[in-house]
Amino acid sequence: MSDVAIGIDVGGTKALALIVARDGRVLGEVKAKTPHDAGNRAGEATAAVLTEQIIELASTHGLDPSEVPVGVGLPGLMRRDGHLAFAPNLQSVNGSDLGALLGVSLASSIVFCENDANCAALAEHEWGAGRGIEDFVMVTLGTGIGGGVIADGQLVRGRSGFAGEIGHMVVQAHGAPCLCGGHGCWERYASGGGLGRLAREAAQSGRLATLVARLGSAEAVRAEDVTAAGAEGLEEALVLLKEVGWWLALGLSNLAAILDCGHFVIGGGLSSASDLVLPYAREHLVDLVEGYDARPTITVTTSMFGPRSGAMGAALVAFERNS
Amino acid sequence: MSDVAIGIDVGGTKALALIVARDGRVLGEVKAKTPHDAGNRAGEATAAVLTEQIIELASTHGLDPSEVPVGVGLPGLMRRDGHLAFAPNLQSVNGSDLGALLGVSLASSIVFCENDANCAALAEHEWGAGRGIEDFVMVTLGTGIGGGVIADGQLVRGRSGFAGEIGHMVVQAHGAPCLCGGHGCWERYASGGGLGRLAREAAQSGRLATLVARLGSAEAVRAEDVTAAGAEGLEEALVLLKEVGWWLALGLSNLAAILDCGHFVIGGGLSSASDLVLPYAREHLVDLVEGYDARPTITVTTSMFGPRSGAMGAALVAFERNS
Q1: Quick check: B314 and B102 in contact, CB under 8 A?
Q2: Which of B115, B254, B288 to mutate to test the interface with A (most CBs of A within 10 A)?
Q3: Which residues are CB-contacts of A49 (< 8 A; sequence separation ≥ 6)?
Q4: If you ran DSSP here, which 8-state letter would residue B66 be given?
Q5: Do the two domains A4-120+308-321 and A131-303 of this chain adopt the same fold?
Q6: Strands A263-267 vs A136-141: parallel, antiparallel or unpaired
Q7: With contacts defined as CB-CB under 8 Å, which chain B residues touch A75?
Q8: Tens of pLDDT, residues A101-143
Q9: What topology is assigned to B133-303 in CATH?
Q10: Contacts 24+ apart (CB under 8 A), B196-202
């Protein structure tokens, strides 16, 4: 059994690789851009980038890369065999078998793949904000919304390993179109991407006049501009962040009804704006959760490891499947 | 260990009590009306009705009622200790501890309570349409929508035992008001009650002209009239049933995304109209499930035990907790 494992979180813009000890300590980190310009060879190009990261981390620690267990977290439907079956938010790698490609390039038989938000849930459950909690949902707010469901202390993986696709829960029938092909998915309202979409709509309808004046046009308004303006206390931005908090609470309420989870751990890029959004979300839960008063308190906290949760959990997956 | 158990399913209109063998054979049945006119003593009145049912079933089989394990299925938030914490569709019994009341009236220490749809899920998993299936959801379409989630072969109960409240998943933000206090809950669109609501709206807007002419007024149109007319092939009724099938598929798709369950078992009163609704629901799943083509086939069948699933599962709960 290895003392360390490498975990990599492959996102739409970057791949974060960590070398992690069995007790969760991060011993080293390498970041790289996720390649998108390789056309139908994007899977191979991505595997090449990850291979370099793994070799660099292993050699820095005096290890043979083929002997270190490696876990890879990917967004979308990850089959139990490591094949990425459907990835609306990482379309370039859709259909690739990154685990097999890495196995070849590293001459390793100990490469394991898992959904990125499932990885984050496992890391938070083992070492972080979900430690000791038997029923919680990890919610990653990035371009989309990913999820990892812990029920009775175990990760819910489902029939094919696809469980936790909470961002594609429809909360507004016939609503905003989604990259998955559906309409009204939660992630069109409550993710970083959802905030961007709501911000552009608000800008176009004149609800963000100060921001539009500052940035020059309604089209220029991005999610980051709204969170930055909210942090300054700009009222029109706070109104929009409150709206996103309501949508966030709506989806959390659905999950609470279905799963009776008493706790949510919020991660992903938008969680850096959590001071602005989470207080509103907590406030709205009271009205939105069925039978709120009949339940013990439902808590919502930010992830303990922030942008590192996914990669740390990928390392945990590597430890567990290699044992 | 007892060879038989009594299971009772307490619904909004009637209480169905069964005496069941360990292999699932139903040995006897007693039905009674659920009392609603006892004001703030409705809990006691309900317990009295159930006590009579239990005594009748036990004595017919030559048994002492205090020695037969009893399971009771109730709609709403059932705490693990047997207390009914919140029941939007059975408000008269809200807050009662039926398990304790029955324990006193029967001088029995082997009375167990569970959510009614969880009971149905357990019965279908042990003996019926979910047998051998590790990931499925039981969906009971009655006045509301109840649910029981089986993940990796186990019932998901959640922190307080409240899991499976799938009918209160919001699918239409700011939508139709619900008895739970929320808006846009799935059960306002896809249950028997939802069909009734959609039917009245359709009748009032002139979309059910033949039915309104037949029944005398738009207000007179009930869910049963629509399903009966649909069975006759009346086009305007079929259009409405197709709409309900779409709403049913929408909620099932959400559950498939969150849980990756490959199978749904449909029970409850509306399931008697399943020949009319389920084909539409299956058809719409193809468009509504995220990444449908990337997944193995998702199946939707009716419950094997129909209106008896809940009571049979309550008996199963009694067997298991008494062992």
Answers
A1: no
A2: B254
A3: A15, A32, A33, A34, A35
A4: G
A5: yes
A6: parallel
A7: none
A8: 999 999 999 999 999 999 999 999 999 999 999 999 999 998 8
A9: Nucleotidyltransferase; domain 5 (3.30.420)
A10: B196/B222, B196/B223, B198/B240, B198/B243, B198/B244, B199/B223, B199/B225, B199/B226, B199/B240, B202/B240
Written as six digits, the tokens of B85 are 């914490």
Taking residue A79's Cβ as centre, other Cβ atoms within 10 Å add up to 18
Map residue A68 onto helix, strand or coil.
coil
Residues with Cβ < 8 Å from B94, sequence gap 6 or more? B76, B84, B86, B87
**Best CA proximity match to B161, nearest among A158, A151, A299:** A151
Count CB neighbours of A104 within 10 A. Answer: 11
N-term to C-term CA, chain A: 6
Expressed in angstroms, the distance from the first to the final Cα of chain B is 6
Q: Where are the domains of chain A?
A: 4-120+308-321, 131-303
Separation of alpha carbons B264 and B245, rounded Å: 14
Q: What is the pTM of this model?
A: 0.95
| ipTM here | 0.95
Q: A228-265: per-residue pLDDT in tens?
A: 999 999 999 999 999 999 999 999 999 999 999 999 99
- Under an 8 A CB cutoff, do A290 and B247 touch? no
Best A169, A250, A261 residue to mutate vs chain B (most B CBs within 10 Å): A169
CATH code: domain A131-303 is: 3.30.420.40
Contact B85 A295 (CB under 8 A): yes
Which amino acid is located at B224 in the chain? E
What are the tokens at A217? Answer: 């046009």
Architecture of domain B4-120+308-321 in this structure: 2-Layer Sandwich (3.30)
Distance CA B85, CA B82 (A): 9
Q: Please, which residues have CB within 8 angstroms of residue A228's CB and are 6 or more apart in sequence?
A: none
* Separation of alpha carbons B73 and B311, rounded Å: 7
Alpha-carbon span B65 to B11, nearest angstrom: 22
Q: Do B149 and A259 touch (CB under 8 A)?
A: yes
CB contact at 8 A, A255 and B137: no
Please spell the DSSP secondary structure of A99-144, one letter per residue. Answer: HHHHHHHHT-S-EEEEEHHHHHHHHHHHHSTTTT-SSEEEEEESSS
Place of tokens 């004595």: B59
